[in-house]
Amino acid sequence: CIFNVHITNSNKNTNIQFCNLKYIRLKRTDDILVKLIAKRIRQLRDERGFTQEYIVECTRLDIPHFEMGESTPSLFSLALLCKFLDITLYDFFAPIEYPIKGSFDFSVDSK
User: Fold this and answer.
1) Side-chain half-sphere exposure of 60, counting CA atoms within 13 A
2) Could you tell me how far CA 1 lies from the centroid of its own chain?
3) DSSP letter at 18?
4) Which residues, including other chains, have CB under 8 Å from residue 70's CB and lie 6 or more apart?
5) Residue 72 has pLDDT above 80, yes or no
6) Comparing C-alpha atoms, which of 100, 31, 108 is closest to residue 70?
7) How does pLDDT run across 86-103, given as a tens digit for each residue?
């Protein structure tokens, strides 16, 4: 929580605590998906004979970190990369078979 406010009126004292929920949100990641996206970016770049530096220069995207899986590109970054490579988002994701259909576990742990 960010700060406390103490309010006093004639009848009672009140403490109110304000929280910034932005700091409480959990960040969701999927290591397998990050690796698959990194591999696909590298594959498309290699197929075209582009260096990381060339794509960074043309798009200002953080290609080295994307390819190493150190950061995950946003959907907007992927769209920009696809425009640069002259492919659609469908073309980008089509070869990625993930998640496997029927792999979600709906069971609830009752511990």
Assistant:
1) 1
2) 25
3) E
4) none
5) yes
6) 31
7) 999 999 999 999 988 877
